[in-house]
Design a protein that fits this description.
This protein is α/β, with parallel strands linked by helices. Helices cover 39% and strands 18% of the residues. The protein has a single domain, classed as Spore Coat Polysaccharide Biosynthesis Protein SpsA, Chain A. Helix 1 links the parallel strand 1 and strand 2. Helix 9 packs parallel to helix 10. The radius of gyration is 18 Å and the shape is globular.
């Protein structure tokens, strides 16, 4: 069994033209209880102001920071994530979105959950629209101040749930999904071994527009025999409110995944 302490970690932060949110996300990475990891900002073609945020953060960061970018020719999240995977020095990859704020033990919790032949899917806590606006306007994140006022935040509707801040459930055998389950897969909180990601060809770059590329990635990993481990109650991220993403390609992308699931079922039935 691989020791958690010996695992090299790359945190891949996906972003696109929202430097204000990215700034808060990076600040939360700077406040982690451990600093044995690298940060890779996977930038899907943002304007130069995002690069400015990354450069300023990297100048004061105690952990290595890389910025990978490609030209903006439409939604190409899968492609930029694959580019970041290729640049990663860590053997273990943690994927988050640049509109998510992390609790201080986020990386430590993911490291503790890491096991060979496993991937981890975590969950999120939604931030309210007005509270998100206030955080973005302030441009600073202080977890201790937030934690001291957490009950007030819950009563005001600033956060969608509160118990996850006080409960950390350890891994249990029942936390593992032995077969593929569609629900609770969030690309903003996902981890796997770099070797496993490469073994399935990374994210499928043929997906166009938003929707299901993360679910497809998890399905292909599980179809290869990787066990999915639930990181719920251990790795929740705080998701900054934003307007819904364009869903025009969601149904078509979902069909691709459903067709692959059916093809795998028929293949196993025939074996």
């Amino acid at each position: 069994m691989t020791s958690a302490a010996t695992v090299s970690v790359s945190v891949i932060v996906n972003t696109y033209n929202w430097p204000e949110a990215l700034k808060l996300s990076l600040q939360s990475l700077a406040g982690q209880t451990e600093n044995c990891f690298e940060i890779i900002v996977a930038d899907d073609g943002s304007r130069p102001d995002t690069a400015d945020v990354v450069k300023a953060f990297a100048g004061s960061s105690s952990v290595p920071v890389k910025h990978v970018w490609h030209e903006d020719v439409g939604f190409r999240r899968a492609a930029i994530l694959n580019k970041a995977i290729g640049e990663a020095c860590g053997s273990y990859l943690i994927f988050i979105d640049g509109d998510c704020i992390l609790q201080p033990d986020f990386v430590a919790q993911h490291r503790a959950l890491a096991r060979l032949n496993h991937l981890v899917t975590g969950s999120r806590i939604l931030l309210g629209q007005e509270y998100s606006r206030q955080l973005l306007a302030a441009g600073t994140w202080d977890y201790q101040v937030f934690r001291r006022n957490i009950l007030r935040h819950r009563l005001k509707g600033d956060i969608s749930k509160i118990v996850a801040f006080f409960v950390r459930l350890p891994w249990r055998p029942m936390s593992d999904y032995r077969c593929f389950v569609w629900r609770r897969i969030k690309g903003c909180n996902l981890a796997c071994w770099k070797s496993d990601a490469l073994s399935v060809g990374g994210f499928d770059e043929t997906f166009t527009g938003w929707g299901s590329e993360d679910i497809d990635f998890v399905f292909r990993l599980q179809d290869r025999g990787i066990i999915r481990r639930a990181g719920t109650w251990a790795t929740e991220v705080l998701h900054i409110w934003h307007k819904p993403t364009d869903p025009s390609r969601a149904a078509a992308n979902e069909k691709v995944v459903l067709d692959r699931i059916e093809a795998a079922r028929l293949r196993k039935k025939a074996a």
